[in-house]
Amino acid sequence: MRCITLTVDAVIPYRGGIVLIKRRNEPFKDHYALPGGIVEYGERVEDALVREVKEETGLNVRPYKLVGVYSDPDRDPRGHFVSVCFLAIPKCGELRASSDAKEVHVFKLDSLPPLAFDHKRMIEDSKKYLLELGLVDG
Fold it and tell me: Would the pLDDT of 83 be above 70?
């Protein structure tokens, strides 16, 4: 029997840009990605988002808005991973890489590096909210 793995990803506006991590592990090792990870059994997706962001970036965030659900069976080379992506607002914490993140950086929307998975699409889908709310520089 094959299983679907549930994950979360966060688009985090920060200092005029968005937070991206450089992945420490495969798949897409050394590529930039949105902070996020696997939802644990019995965990709400919102709680998983807060936990994963804290583990990878040092930031405490509040899920603000659902960006979308990404379920293409080919979006992750490890198997069928379905991701719930949120716009998340930072509350406090110090931006620093840890856990599965090799590095953490803030990028302007007009200067994004090549991204892992389908994270470029997630960022595109969140752009209207980011700009409408004035959370990033145009």
Answer: yes
Distance of CA 94 to the CA centre of its chain: 17
What's the confidence (pLDDT) of residue 100?
74
Which of 109, 120, 128, 132 shows the shortest CA–CA distance to 28? 120
Tens of pLDDT, residues 56-66: 999 999 999 99
26, 40, 103, 124: which one is catalytic? 103
Where does the chain show beta strands of DSSP type E?
5-11, 13-14, 17-23, 32-33, 36-38, 59-70, 81-93, 101-107
Is residue 43 flagged as an active site residue?
no
- pLDDT higher than 70, residue 1: no
Q: Where are the alpha helices (DSSP H) in 1-138?
A: 45-57, 119-132
Token duo for residue 26: 């495969």
Give SS3 for 1: coil
- Per-residue DSSP letter, 113: P
- Rounded CA-CA distance 83/119 in Å is 10
- Determine the Cα–Cα distance for residues 9 and 41; give it in Å rounded to an integer: 17
